């Protein structure tokens, strides 16, 4: 029995952008755009009424922006969707704030259709979409202030958990981490879960942010 299509909500204040995204995504048999929002407030309402699997969230919108909308969705939804931030610029500080708020990753608006479709599928299955060099750039100012000392949780990581977090910060998926370390998928999941707990992170993206801001990447990488 085939699975139902992934349900997607598009949040962007430009109608033409939403239309272009809908055309690309609805062309895929396993994806379905179930709603649109022109600002953050509409995005929050759409999530509550439509229960999507993934939200494509623009960061700069009138009224409630994508960052506040992400925070409200993740804090006020029992089973929140995965949120993929869509932005124009890699070095947009709004992107970093959205990742800290719990977005699963970010995608540039200039991405081609295959990248867009792949990103939606990736975050829907629980992985994070991160570009290590871009995250490193975005984190630089924050990490410089936050990492005067190393965060206390770093000392609580086992050697293998430290290896896993280092590879997570490098943008590797669970499958890639398993191949690199020579361990099975369930073992990787166990280590990732331990990393999330020790860093106080909701998901992989927040763990990577914690790795930069806590001095782990700078000191260990």
UniProtKB/TrEMBL annotation:
Keywords: DNA-binding, Phosphoprotein, Transcription, Transcription regulation. Residues 7-124 form the Response regulatory domain. It comes from the Bacteria. Residues 150-215 form the HTH luxR-type domain. The modification 4-aspartylphosphate is found at residue 58. Transmembrane segments: none annotated. SMART domains: HTH_LUXR, REC. Signal peptide: none annotated. InterPro entries: CheY-like_superfamily (IPR011006), NreC/VraR/RcsB-like_REC (IPR058245), Sig_transdc_resp-reg_C-effctor (IPR016032), Sig_transdc_resp-reg_receiver (IPR001789), Tscrpt_reg_LuxR_C (IPR000792), WalR-like (IPR039420). This is Response regulator. It comes from Streptomyces toxytricini.
